[in-house]
Each structure stands twice: as C-alpha cells, then as structure tokens.
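User: What would this chain look like folded?
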Amino acid sequence: MPDFKKRNIADYSSLSRAELDGMLEYGRNHRLANQYAGRRILVFPHFGIRKCGPLAAATAYACLRSGADRILAIGVLHGGARPELKAAAERIAKGTGPESEPLRGIHTPGESLCADEFSVMHFEFLLKGIAEAEGVRMPELIVRYPVLTCGEPATLPGIHELADIAADSIIVSTMDTVHHGIGYGTPEAEALQPEPEGLIMARKKTADLMDLLVQGDYREYEKAGRECKSDGLANGPVLRHILGGFRSEISDLAWEDMSKIYEAPSPTWVAGGLIEMTGDSKR
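Assistant: Here's the prediction, encoded as structure tokens.
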C-alpha cells in the first residue's frame, strides 16, 4: 500500500499559492460553509488534496463559522497496511464473533495502530490554515477511529464515550465511498472510465449507501459498501448511531485517478462526496 501520509505531507509543501487559494475560495463560498446549524454531520473524501481539498475546505469553513469550541472528527482507519486488522476481518468473515476481537472499538491517534493513518490530515491542515488566515480561534479537535463496527455500532467498545464527546461537539467525518477499476480488482470488461459513466455510478452507489444508513440497515450497508469498496464500513454505522434518524444530501462529488499511484492499468480511480447528514430535530 502506498505511503499516503508521506504523500500528503509532500503535497502540502508543494501546493502553489494559486492552488491553495482556489480550494479555499471554493470552500469559503460553498453553501454548506454558511449554514452549520442544528444536528448535522458533514462527510468529506480524503484522497489527494488537489482533488478533494475543496470539499474538505468547505467542511473546515463550516466548522469555524459555527463558532464551536470543539470538533469531533471521525476518521477511517485503513486496514490495508495493517496485517492485524486484515486478520481480524478475515476471522469475522468466517463466522468468529466480533466481540472476541481485541482491536474492535474506538481508537485514538496516539495509538501505534493509528500512527500512519492519513484520513483526517486534509481537514486538519485546512482547518488550521483557515483559522490562522482569518484570525479566528482554533477549536479543540478530537479525532477518533472506529474499527470493526461489524454492523453493531451500539455494542462497539468505546461508543458511549464517543457519544458523550459528540454531544458537545461539531461532528465531521470522512470516507471515500467508491474505489473502482482494474487496480481495485474490477474485471477489465466491467471497468468504467470515471467520466461520464463512472461518476454517474459513483453518485448512485454513494446515495445508496446513505439510504441504507438512513434506514439503519447496517448489514446491507456493509454488504453494499464491500461491493463498491467503500472505506466507510466502520464509521458509517457509528455516524448513524450518534445522529439517530437523519436525511442526507450529496452536495458535490470528486474523484482521482489512482492508476499511477498503484502502478495499475487505467481505469483505476476513487471517488467520494461532500455529504450532509442532517439529524431529526425531534431527537
């Protein structure tokens, strides 16, 4: 698996002023950056910052303009480079009860398991940059990583503590909902170019995932997520558990060509959206 944390750090250093200004302008003027009210979670993608940075910037602006003292960012802990997570997932797939897995739970950035995680980096980079540029106070940022939710967020170790943090926080999260193409195991005959047909598929798959969360159908959510290779299998049910009943809207969709990074034939690409999850005001 490529070292995406190292890649991100290099990208931040090499961003031109024009590139950074462009994504900040997009974020500053986005509808969602100007109406952070009520019970809401914004979800942004985390592939290359030049492609999805504008969506993360809109999320960061929304948080800062809310005036919140604390932000809870629920990230993705990628298991591809972590043999212990892969082994646990394989045991569960074979029928082992998830409650017997010691890694199942809510993890913190200070743990060795999370040392190389990168999914919240863009948001943190842009949040700090925007706060400094606009002369506003940087809120407290708490990052957590759900692992092996297994369709049962209510029994996830640490979920009650996470809910307590969420009760007094603005909440954001991240996921890349579709990984598609030859480099991700899609048969060549079924591999779609991202534009136009691939992104039509990606938006539909993303909407389908959100609909399953709205319904609280965690098993079908995980099944559909595995089919489109979403990396939000663990955090999606946690977001729904925290928010309760909600409605969702995909505001924007972005994508990135991953064929060179994985040294794979084209098409090989990833997509994710800026997603607004708005909770039931009655809860």
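The chain has a mean pLDDT of 94. If you want, I can go into more detail on any region.
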